[in-house]
Structures
1.
Amino acid sequence: MEHEDVVTGALVTPGGRILSWSDDQTLRLWDPTTGLQRGPAMKHDNLVTGALAMLDGRILSWSDDQTLRLWDTKTGLQSGPAMKHDSFVQGALVMPDGQILSWSVDQTLRLWDPTTGLQNGPAMKHDSGVVGALVMPDGRILSWSADQTLRLWDATTGLQSGPAMKHDSSVVGALVMPDGRILSWSYDQTLRLWDAATVRQIGPAMHHDALVRGALALPDSRILSWSDDETLRLWNLAWPPGNLFEIACALLPDANVATMSDATSLAIKDPICVEPSKIPLPDWRQAPQIH
């Protein structure tokens, strides 16, 4: 099975045929038994960068020609008008309601009607190229960008939901943890956890020594990440909730934290981990300055 330039991706369609796409600007269908091409090549006007199979049997593809296109797999002909961005299309997915979501170097995400090919609602706009997106369990859209941010969007109105979540360099990727938290990673050499409701960062950043290429969530609540620093690292996220004292009480085997007084120079007289002790929160604004 041969294209006329670099092959950049492939998938198996629901009908069992092989779909491939290439820098030769085409998508092609192949018979996996004979290896022969099925039907004519489906042609864009620039490199084809991705494709997926729609539930209705059509193929959706996107390209550096700034368009997404739908194709009839029986005829190989384009189905409806091209859906057009203003720069290279980076990716696309199908929403739970059947709409097509795409994102682009033109700094926008857009929703499309797969029947008419027309844009639904306003474009959702970042301040630099959009790198990726996914659909949250609650139906919102999460996107990340070279503008150093992740953003949540209301899929109905196209409006941003809450403030942006900010890294210190381009965001490479993100995923939703099983408990609903958002994990992101970036060229700033860190991974960060975010509360999807408040869009606030949870805990400190997790640091590599070079840009972070990817990550995944393990079943035991740890995260596995990998980086240009030539390492893979495991991170433990199974921390109990609460303030610093409550976390200490949950993790330390000795219920009487007063035993730590000598080592920490803290004047603790009561067993603060024993109910019904009330732990006063420190006023960090009154903390003495260290010279």
2.
Amino acid sequence: MFAEHTDRYLRAVDTALPGFVTKLYIAGSAAADLEITVDPAALRRYNLENLRDYWRPLARRARQETGELGGAEPVPGEAVSWLVLGPARLHHTLAHGTVVAKADAGAYLGRLFPAWTALQDRAVRWRGDGGETFTVDDLRAAADAVEAVVDDAWIRWGDPDRAARVPAR
């Protein structure tokens, strides 16, 4: 259900922000060495719109597609990991202007929203060795985490007047 969106999302990021991802090596060169400039306002707008237009509907769809399932039924780790870590990376970029690895995004999510620490820890471990298992309840919690991250980002950076009044985390 989620894998088909990955390629489209990555192509959109690469088209909108070519070379922006730090620590990405292209033909042996660090992306940072390519001296590509990024418009911070365009980056902020892109990330906010991506959170609103891609991640929030994806979270809602995850809830809809699991609505009839019992909470203990297994779900793919990829789905939970994708929902937990993807929006956290965008939020981190909005807050700090850099792109981080998914493991770092998980730690950031845990600091930003302590309620999601256990789930993000498991999502990061799943990406490391695939040994974690997840349930429908985990997927629903991941969808809730998406909503929290999207809401927080729009409060902080979607309205410049309001964002200036929100304390940094």
3.
Amino acid sequence: MYLHGYGIAKDSAKAVHWFERAADQRNAAGLNALSVMYQKGDGVPKDARKASMLLLAAADLGSSCAQFNLVQVYMGGNGVTASSETAARWILKAAQGGLAPAQYYLGMMALKGRVVKQDDAEVIKWFRLAAAQDLSFAQVRVGWMCEQGRGRQSEPYDSDEMVSSGS
């Protein structure tokens, strides 16, 4: 509420206070939110290292959102030593945790052979999982992959239906 001013005046310092209380209880959402505050310097001094440590704690608690956010942290070396291998581990965890944007991003990484090996079967697998959650970008990519005849799996599939449901 305080972070965005929903129904009350926006107050970043109060938002930080409540996020810190949640983080002190090892609440993954609180840790993730507090990390964003430190990343942006909103209500606290900007501190990329502290932000990455908070994200890591949330990710270790199983937060798919924090795991996904760590991908960019490790790819860019924001508060940590840049490591594409570590980024690949976190994107896989987030995708396995069912986070549709992570599944799509992992599919894109596999499509381009960036960080993970290029593998059409893995590409279509991750795109389909994200598409099944109505992520329209993934639905378009599934249609594109099927049109190209790439990464087909053995089960029957109607690419036209998947692509049209995303519009």
